């Protein structure tokens, strides 16, 4: 707040993520990883530098253009699920398609397929309070998948889950990556980061290390 209180959350970071990569971004609180996630997800724009996504210079787009990019190119999965409490699983997954004007029948078919892809065929008409934590996260993942985004951006996706359910959700991310999805995972948990193929450590707004995860060395 104020010119004299500026904090450089990220300082001269340069990173490239290729199609179908599975990357974990790690760092302690205040390291800049949340800011980097917001930039990748087009929730924020850099004050300097450039961000290219699928050959488009998104760092120079206005708010309306960024909203369209978020809807089309980014599938978000949050720690707190961010589901509408009074809506069924099917309606929660439909939401991105409603916003971009997809016709009703196509919308329903795509939402049902996304839920089926995450193993929730039998829970399409249940509301969030009728689902377990793991099932809620699967609904959130289905919603992220429904637009066939360029990037699935997962922020602490197992943070509100018990360890057994967390393993199941990470196995689901493994299968999504195997199908060709690009996944960027933001976490502070080393064991969760090891599911990725590449781990980027951020410290004090800069990249401290960028290397293959232990599983893939």
TrEMBL record:
SMART domains: AAA (SM00382). Residues 1-217 form the ABC transporter domain. It comes from Occallatibacter riparius. Belongs to the ABC transporter superfamily. Macrolide exporter (TC 3.A.1.122) family. One of its GO terms (cellular component) is membrane protein complex. Keywords: ATP-binding, Nucleotide-binding, Transport. It comes from the Bacteria. This is ABC transporter ATP-binding protein. InterPro entries: AAA+_ATPase (IPR003593), ABC_transporter-like_ATP-bd (IPR003439), ABC_transporter-like_CS (IPR017871), ABC_transpr_LolD-like (IPR015854), MacB-like_ATP-bd (IPR017911), P-loop_NTPase (IPR027417).
């Amino acid at each position: 707040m104020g010119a004299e209180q500026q904090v450089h959350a990220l300082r001269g970071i340069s990173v490239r993520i290729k199609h179908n990569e599975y990357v974990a971004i790690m760092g302690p609180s205040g390291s800049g990883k949340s800011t980097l996630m917001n930039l990748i997800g087009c929730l924020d724009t850099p004050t300097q530098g450039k961000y290219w996504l699928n050959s488009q210079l998104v760092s120079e787009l206005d708010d309306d253009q960024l909203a369209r990019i978020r809807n089309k190119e980014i599938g978000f999965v949050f720690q707190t699920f961010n589901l509408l409490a009074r809506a069924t699983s099917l309606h929660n997954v439909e939401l991105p398609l409603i916003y971009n004007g997809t016709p009703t029948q196509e919308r329903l078919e795509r939402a049902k397929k996304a839920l089926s892809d995450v193993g929730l065929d039998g829970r399409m008409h249940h509301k969030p309070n009728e689902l377990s934590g793991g099932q809620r996260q699967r609904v959130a993942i289905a919603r992220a998948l429904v637009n066939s985004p360029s990037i699935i951006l997962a922020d602490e996706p197992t943070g509100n889950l018990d360890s057994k359910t967390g393993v199941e959700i990470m196995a689901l991310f493994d299968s999504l990556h195997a199908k060709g999805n690009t996944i960027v995972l933001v976490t502070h948990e080393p064991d969760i980061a090891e599911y990725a193929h590449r781990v980027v450590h951020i410290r004090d707004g800069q990249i401290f290390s960028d290397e293959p995860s232990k599983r893939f060395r």
